[in-house]
Amino acid sequence: MSFFGPPVYVLAAALFALGVLGFTIRRNAIVVLLSVELMLNAANLTFLASARGGVNANEASSYAIFVILVAAAEAASGTGARLRVLPPEEDDRARRRERAPRIAGIP
Amino acid sequence: MTFADVLGYVLGGAAIAASLGVVLRRDAVVAAMNLVLAFFCLSGVYLLLGFPFLAAIQVLVYAGAIMVLFLFVIMLLGVSTLARTPLSARTGIGAVVALAVFVRLAILGIELGSETAPGAVAARLAAQRGIAPVRESVAGVSQLLFDGPLVLAFEITGVILLAAMVGVVVLARRDPRVATPGDFARQHAFDPRPLVGGQPAPAIPDGVPAETPRAVGANEPLASDANPKNTAVTGGVA
Question: How far is the alpha carbon of B206 from chain A, nearest alpha carbon, in Å?
């Protein structure tokens, strides 16, 4: 059976389902973001597979590039948000630091 | 079954194996490297599908830039704090949901793939209108993106990226007035010593590992801190 018929769509479905699995069962925020990337890639693969041999392959490429750009923005903002969230004991420390009065002479 | 088909099956299987590694390996770094492998395999599939430019973009932007960003953040947060996070309690639910999603999407995909060979409809339309299918080329893509109907969309994507960048700068910015633990101990040799309780902190003798000092204003005992040594210095708070 040719790979470029149903199998390529099944591959995309498997990748998307694995992304859903990772998004659901992982607790690590970074790995959750990695799973989202996996899902976006599966969508891209479906898109390109169905555009294969079409009227204008350049259009398919352009839209896939848009998906990649959105994925880049999502990766940047997601990791930035993760940097903001501190682990519990660090959070405790930081909150105390904000509340406590400052020592004179130290900015 | 041609050579391209065999290559496609091999790359697809490798992509699925690598994705399993992303989802199931506990170590965040290993998961990220598995995702890089999956991206490379997908890049090969794109090449087989006839999209060489997108294959290059996949490697450069995804496997290069985005994954470097992820690895950078993993290293910044510390591998040890992230390494062994357990799977959540929703593992069973997640497996069921993922299986359902896979079955539904696979049925859809098999229908789509067998009813019409990929691109068959578009190729028939092109034949009716008497146009030859256009292959992917860098010139064609850039024509569409920079001098075609997609210019506005492309500019909007630029604004989205700019907004994401500004947002990350705002999110990740630290309050510069607050010293973090460890700031002073690493700089004793070059900086004026910090004031602890209004007095200069004692110098650290050579060969003695520096104890991480408490941050400014954090001299009171913490609820999570059972070490009584740090509670001794409390005076001199303005």
Answer: 26
Beta strands B199-200 and B195-196: pairing type? Answer: antiparallel
Specify if B127 maps to a domain: no
C-alpha span between A78 and A69 (Å, rounded): 14
Instruction: Identify the closest residue of chain B to A53 by CA–CA distance.
Output: B119
Contact assignment for A4 to B215 by CB distance below 8 Å: no
In a domain, B219, yes or no: no
CATH number at residue B70: 1.20.120.1200
Distance set, CA B109 to CA A53, B23, B119 (Å): 17, 23, 14
- For the record, the structure tokens of B157 come out as 């994507």
Mutation pick from A16, A79, A86 vs chain B, by most beta carbons of B within 10 Å, is A79
Say yes or no: ipTM exceeds 0.90: no
Q: Is A1 close to B1, i.e. CB distance below 8 A?
A: yes
| pTM for the whole structure | 0.73
Residue ranges of domains in chain A, CATH in brackets: 6-99 (1.10.287.3510)
B38-49 pLDDT, tens digit each:
999 999 999 998
Residue to test with chain B: of A1, A2, A3, A56, most B Cβ within 10 A? A3
Between B42 and B216, residue with greater pLDDT = B42
Distance from the B207 Cα atom to the nearest Cα atom in chain A, whole angstroms: 28
